[in-house]
Amino acid sequence: MKTKQSKMMIKNSVKLLVVIFLMASCSKDDDGPKFQEENFLASYLSQTGFDQKTNLFVNSGSFEFGLFFSPKVKGKITSLKVKLPDVNSSLKVTLWDIETSTVIRTEIVNVATINTDFTFDINDIPLEKDKEYAITMNTNDWYDRKKNDGSIVTYPIISGNIELKSYKFISGTSQTLPTSSQTNYYAGDLSFNFIQTK
User: What CATH number was assigned to the domain covering residues 38-196?
Assistant: First the structure.
């Protein structure tokens, strides 16, 4: 009798442990919303019409240039995306804090093949909601993207959770925050993959 009772207790204990484990697993999986990684570039080019006409510039003088932006949610940059019309084994990509005009992070990436989209995994960079940043690169090779009629666009441009405030450039090879705005073209291609965290 005792043996049968002991077996029943063990069986019930095992069932209870399985139920507790399943509940813990479900609870862990349902901790909150699952956010999708996003990239703003295709939507930005489409909304501005800068995907209509593209010219290639190779060895055409060095510039620091890129997009100024604000996240509409708290999140993080998980990787960088670059495409160039020439190879560049040491392309310097910089993320800037606009309020302080300081460098948050510099990454050196190898664009090993022309006209190829490269994704470079990096240590995550946290971004604050509504804070202004810039993502720039320093190169003498780029795609010059315009509308067919060459007309200007009005910023900001909203692409998912990223608000693109302006495109800016500055001449030279030094790592310098761009100051000159341009509204009738975009020079690139440089972007990042972003995921909301809260």
Answer: 2.60.120
